[in-house]
Amino acid sequence: MADLRVSTTDPDASPMHQKNKSTNRLGYLTHYAVDGGKARVILDVLVTGAEVTENLPMQEMLFRSAFRWQLRPQSVTGDAAYGTRENIAAIEKAGIRAYTALPDQGKRTSLFTMEDFVYDSEKDLYICPAGETLRRRGHDRRGGYVRYAASASACNECPLKSRCTKGPKGRWLSRGLEEEYLERVRAYRQTEAYRKALRKRAVWVEPVFAEAKEWHGSRRFRLRGLEKVNSEALMIASGQNVKRLVEFGSPSPKKIAKAVALRPPEKPSPHPLRRHRTIPTPRFSTR
């Protein structure tokens, strides 16, 4: 679509999908990296063309913010758009917990999804809801998947076949080479820390975008060109952080990112240079 429609005034803008609308508009996507503290300090901003997949900038913004502000985040939160296999694997490998929502596969099909099967890591096989085993049947090196399948005879005689597969060759599963990280995130779902992180994101992070649109004019860029709109987005985010700087009055901030991003000016030395008192010399006059 980006190759078919080009703006005559801003060639860098590309078609973006609008919810509840049948037409597309040319524009950009703005991405924010926000600290998880109560101050909601904006750590990084990136504007991309609308044709760029939303999940691609996540790793760059995360590791750039961690390097720039010398942070060691313990967890990262994002919606289902950022919960891709590549992002989750990179975050978990860095020792950070990926508290990201995963796409709900159950809404895409009425059949059993991969989450309905139990993986046995010791035997390297899957167990289906009916108790049958799916053994390893090869791998796809190009796609990075390992394929598992059950016997066709067992699937054709299974009473749950109508809910599992429609093919006569039995049920097949494709397991990614980094599927273990996705399973780790699925295990996070049962923890209160994961649920709290998603609640905080909905209450603390989403309003930051609404604030930029309603109060700072981020709904429509005034400049044109990818480089200039990135500069404008940085200025808008800086204005949002300035408002947080005004509220920054606590002597000992609880969040490192807040202290670094909104560092107050250094206080004068508690031991100033001692100045000697000068005694005015009396003046005498004779008449």
Structural features, described:
- 19% of the residues are buried.
- The protein is 30% helix and 18% strand.
- Strands 6-7-8-9-10 form a five-stranded antiparallel sheet, with no helix packed on it. It has a three-stranded antiparallel sheet with strand order 1-2-3, sandwiched between helices.
- With 287 residues, it is an alpha+beta fold.
- It folds into two domains: 14-105 and 183-261, Nucleotidyltransferase, domain 5 (2-Layer Sandwich); 113-170, no CATH class.
Entry keywords:
287 residues; alpha+beta; Nucleotidyltransferase, domain 5; three-stranded antiparallel beta sheet; 30% helix
Secondary structure layout:
Elements: E1 14-16, E2 25-34, E3 42-49, H1 57-68, E4 75-78, H2 85-93, E5 97-100, E6 118-120, E7 125-127, E8 133-140, E9 145-149, H3 152-156, E10 172-176, H4 179-188, H5 192-215, H6 226-246, H7 256-261
Parallel strand pairs: 4-5
Antiparallel strand pairs: 1-2, 2-3, 6-7, 7-8, 8-9, 9-10
Helix pairs in contact: 2-4
CATH top level assignment of the largest domain: Alpha Beta
Sheet-strand content, in percent, reads 15-25%
Number of domains: 2
The largest β sheet comes out as: 5 strands, antiparallel
Shape, please? elongated
Low-confidence stretches: none
Q: State the end-to-end CA separation.
A: 102 Å
Q: How many helices does DSSP assign?
A: 7
Cα-atom radius of gyration? 28 Å
Order of strands, widest sheet: 6-7-8-9-10
Q: Work out the helicity level.
A: 25-40%
**Overall pLDDT, averaged?**
84
Q: How many strands appear in the DSSP assignment?
A: 10
Instruction: Specify the oligomeric state.
Output: single chain
Question: Could you say what the CATH architecture of the largest domain is?
Answer: 2-Layer Sandwich
List the secondary-structure elements in sequence, H or E: EEEHEHEEEEEHEHHHH
